[in-house]
Amino acid sequence: MPGVFDRLPEWVNADAALVRRGRYLSATFLVETGDTAWLVTVHEGRVTRVERGPFLMREWAFAIRASAEAWRRFWEPVPAPGFHDLFALTKGGHARVEGDLQPLMANLRYVKDLIALPRGRA
Amino acid sequence: MADYEPILGRYLRLDHAGRPHRLYVEEAGQGIPLVCLHTAGADGRQWRHVLNDAEITRHFRVLAFDMPWHGKSLPPAGWQDEEYRLTTQGYIDLVLAFIETLGLERPVVMGCSIGGKIVLELARLHAPMFRALIGLESADYQAPWYDDTGWLHRPDVHGGEVSGAMMSGLIAPQSPSETRWDTLWMYMQGGPGVFKGDLHFYRADGDFRDRVAEIDTSRCPLYLLTGEYDFSCTPADTERTAAKIKGARVTVMREIGHFPMSENPAQFRRYIAPVLEEIRATG
Q1: Assigned CATH class of B8-282
Q2: Please, which residues 219-248 of chain B have a Cβ atom closer than 8 Å to chain A?
Q3: B147, B166, B228: best to mutate for the A interface, most A CBs within 10 A
Q4: Which residue in B156, B231, B239, B255 has the most chain A C-beta atoms within 10 A of its own C-beta, making it the best mutation to test that interface?
Q5: How far, CA to CA in Å, does B40 sit from each of A105, B43, B176, B202, B259?
Q6: Where are the domains of chain B?
Q7: Is the pLDDT score of B283 beyond 80?
Q8: CATH code, A109
Q9: Cα–Cα distance, B249 to B267 (Å, whole number)
């Protein structure tokens, strides 16, 4: 079954402005979409690896976890109020952000743009 | 011929909190004074579309100042050794000093976010001074949507970049690209720690849950308008606040977030024009 982030490297790496925005980020982070876990590895703004779980014992800098339903609504072409932004999801109790937040906050626009890429494509 | 906008920008010397300040003020129009208060960590440019709206400036003298530390208003001398923190009292004093210095008679005050919040205290404490009060994205309290405002001011995170990225979520998805990014640019331009200092008022000092019921709208009309995409001050926060204030008028604005006048001026106009018309008609 194809996964929502399978084509993430293609989407990100073809977007020169996005890659430039993330040029100081090199990290692996976890995204959970319901029962499915994804490890996304970024090197200087380019996505070099996307792995689909389950994982047994892996490291990541930060994690963004939400239900499949929350992501589905987040990725709608015009998301409803409360589902239109990462922090709208967390405030509403639909998502959790955990781990080392410094690389996330220092590259927040990049990460927000990256996780929104399935919007209208998923 | 030069394509000047009708907005006039000037610097106003004003004493505030016992110290001389130099406040940047933009103004357009004539008639009923309409003082506009910008959001935390931003500046008066948020009101540029209201200031440029000929239908509004035909009847209103629109004034928007940059708070000290914001936009083109410098911090007071000696700032380099201080941590900036906005307080309820300091904010009230600033607005009153501005009105008094300019000799504005029974102005309308319209504020957004922190500006919308201070409007509640102006309504409670100084109602007879005003013709009407308008709070945008205004509530007596709003639950925080992130734990630590320290992220906005630390050396290993760029304050402007993170402020812009945080605020991007408070803009409705329908807002036009140009005005969305104008709005975020102001956040990206803020001085170090200034947005965080404003949030001291927004999140901590400005908890008015115990006092908004004292507001008497028979002394001064109070309009509260909140965007449906605002998850910082939600429509539910505004409605809960208004439920305690007899006579407060609430409007939930569709396809708008936390920055109505700046993120989507055309959509905001649909909601604010009838309010201003009503204020004008009732004198």
Answers
A1: alpha beta
A2: 228-229, 231
A3: B166
A4: B231
A5: 19, 8, 22, 8, 11
A6: 8-282
A7: no
A8: 3.30.1050.10
A9: 19
